[in-house]
Design brief:
By secondary structure, the chain is α+β, with helices and mostly antiparallel strands. The chain is built from 15 helices and 10 strands. InterPro entries: ABC3_permease_C, MacB_PCD, Macrolide_Exporter_MacB.
Amino acid sequence: MIATIKILWSSLKMAVQELRVNKLRTFLSLLGITIGIFCIIAVLTATNSLESNVRNDLAALGNDVIFVQKWPWEGGPDAPWWKYMNRPLPEYKELKYIQDKVHSASAAAFAFSSGNKRIEYKNDYMEGVDFMAVTQDYDKVQQISISAGHFFIGKENDGSSNVAIIGANLWEGLFGSAEAALGKTIRIEGRPTRIIGVLKKKGSSMLDIVSYDNIVIVPYKYGRTIVDERRYADPYILVKTAPTSTMPEMKDELRGVIRAVHRLRPTMEDNFSLNEITSATDDLNGVFAAINMGGFFIAFFALVVGGFGIANIMFVTVKERTSIIGLKKAIGAKRSVILMEFLIESILLCIVGGTIGLLLVFMGTLVANSLSTFVVTLTLSNIILGLTISAFVGMVAGFIPAFSASKLDAVVAIRSN
């Protein structure tokens, strides 16, 4: 056993020495496997990062929140849009019924949004601003990060209170700082409105369903005096599950309450949609699985080319060391030891190439993160996967050369030179 370990250790040192001496050959051998591992891990890193960013953006909307809307989120282009078109829009008065009757909910809010508004402050202005009107519990249902000031409270929810909360793009562009914006009066579509709160800078996201950086939020009753939500917006109700309840429980209770409000008979279909984030995230599984499969398919060919390159180099190595193999067999080295010697060298060669490929991917993530807000991460699982694939390719590519070396006759091998 000790003798075998010594032979293997000697073989490992010889393999390292071969890599150092034959630099050009080593470089050409590593190039194929490096490109292969780079391709497959780069694709996986990109798709995993994309999936993570999309899921985080969806989770920010609330995994425990149901959106009561006219249109469903699922269905695609084949959905019966003509049926949904005839559905009524959610109404503000329905919010009171939900708050009173849905006991499995912890909070509910009514909201609508409209884009492309003009915001003015003295001689400055910003165009293309998103406009949102919400009721007082909106901050309990959605993640609202206030940098300075406060959310709407008390009489500020009254239609006579012309107050607003603005996003980072607005307070940076019009005032320079969040603190400077507080208390100032802006004009929304010509209506004077006092700023009582400013939002923290969030940065762009993959989905930008709600762009809180480029938004002005006002109380609902004030907002409907600026925009007619029945004609120029898509109102919806947000309902958050209570900690002691489950989403299915609240969804069933919510459906029953809304059907009663809409006076639907038991045989009639729902004329509303109960949308939730989990249904959207479930659809992502198939999409990203297909993308990853495509990435594997592309990288497979690069790995095959790299594997043939490694196999070719190992055949050359066996040819060069034929006499040494004969001497080792003459002093008692078994076939399994010779086989393991060349397999170790092949695996080591591939792991080095794979490590270089992983380093290139890592440097790519650093560049990508410095140039955009899209977060790209090389995960530990992808690193382990890359090294595992490298070792597997090395084992497969090196097996036939190693097997042929182990079968050499000692006398014939010594006389080969």
